[in-house]
Amino acid sequence: MISVRPLDAPFGAEITGIDLSEDALDSAVKPIVDALHENRFVVIRDQALDTDRYMAFGEQFGTPIPHVLDHLRMRGYPAIMEVGNTEKQHRKEAVRNGAVFWHTDQSYEAEPSSATMLYAIKVPKQGGETLIADLAGAYDALDDETKERIDGLVVKHLYGAASGRGDEKIASPLINEEQVEKVPPVHHRLVRPHPVTGRKTLYAVAGTCYGIVGMDDEEAQDLLAELKEHALQDRFIYKHKYDLGDIAIWDTSATLHSGTSIDFADSEENSRLLYRISVRGKPRVYQ
Ligand SMILES: [Fe+2]
Fold first, then answer.
1. Cβ–Cβ < 8 Å for 276, 64
2. Among candidates 218, 69, 201, which has minimal Cα distance to 135?
3. Distance, CA 252 to ligand 1 centroid (Å)?
4. pLDDT of the chain along its 287 residues, tens only?
5. How many angstroms separate the alpha carbon of residue 91 from the centre of ligand 1?
6. How many whole angstroms from 105 Cα to the centroid of ligand 1?
7. β-bridge pairing 13-16 and 41-44
8. How many angstroms separate the alpha carbon of residue 189 from the centre of ligand 1?
9. How many Å apart are CA 78 and CA 106, to the nearest integer?
């Protein structure tokens, strides 16, 4: 029997009592989708799926997005990316820690991601957490004057443009002209109604934002920095420590996330490997 329980955290929920290797995916996914939209983050515990089955599960949430960093796609599964510190490509710091900055996925694309999931294949004893910030909660907590000021503003985004600030790492670099051409600057509303629930939320106030349409650049960057600082208060942040078999899913329309720095693995004990799928569009149950 499926059970959805709030996490001991500012937001998010834990889902147990479901076996995605056996249960019919279409009926199993509806309560997960609803819990995701209600809580912005869910973790489904104790799953053991082969890659085809995991892909089929991911497809229930929308259309999987093969990452613009095509050299990092999993062989045979272009919409899966191996995130962690165990594979050959992870020897490069810029790849291994290429998500250690606050961002939301594919906000540099015209139709960005609507959900991202990470399936924990190997988990280190220490470290390897994902930080997630609740931008719907952060929006609700703004004062009325700020809400009025930012309503209707349109933000300019570009791949990695706002990464590498303070302690943050730079986004995994694009490696050739073809990749650069695939991700020209795009615009998104700063206060973006959630595509399914319609709930107002701040959108992508970190990672890719570099300006606001019709606003002086300095003023725009000050405003974006102010909103990012507001959103990254502890009261809006959850830090997820993975257990083996976790499938963690977050609502990329209403959150920011950041990896945490990790060294290349030199033993099983500190190995981290997660299979990432990011999707766009609405879940099948809403199509
Ligand atoms: Fe990400």
1. no
2. 201
3. 9
4. 899 999 999 999 999 999 999 988 878 899 999 999 999 999 999 999 999 999 999 999 999 999 998 888 999 999 999 999 999 999 999 999 999 999 999 999 999 999 999 999 999 999 999 999 999 999 999 999 999 999 999 999 999 998 888 889 999 989 999 999 999 999 999 999 999 999 999 999 999 999 999 999 999 999 999 999 999 999 999 999 999 999 999 999 999 999 999 999 999 999 999 999 999 999 998 88
5. 19
6. 5
7. parallel
8. 20
9. 16
Report long-range pairs for 51-56 (Cβ below 8 Å, ≥24 apart).
51/76, 51/77, 51/80, 51/275, 53/20, 53/21, 54/80, 54/119, 54/247, 54/275, 54/277, 55/79, 55/80, 55/277, 56/25
* 258 CA → ligand 1 middle, Å: 7
The whole-number pLDDT of residue 224 equals: 97
Q: Provide the whole-model pTM.
A: 0.96
User: CA neighbours within 13 Å on the CB side: how many for 283?
Assistant: 25
Residue type, 239: K
Tell me if 280 sits within 8 A of 106, measured CB to CB. yes
Cβ atoms of 100 and 261 within 8 Å: the answer is yes
Q: Ligand 1 centroid to 144 CA: how many Å?
A: 30
Q: In angstroms, rounded to a whole number, what is the distance separating the alpha carbons of residues 11 and 42?
A: 9
| Tokens (6 digits) for 202 | 């701040």
| Gap from CA of 103 to ligand 1 centroid (Å) | 6
Span from the CA of 200 to the centroid of ligand 1 (angstroms)? 22
DSSP codes of every residue in 6-20? E-SSSS-EEEES--T
What is the distance in A from the centroid of ligand 1 to the CA of 104? 6
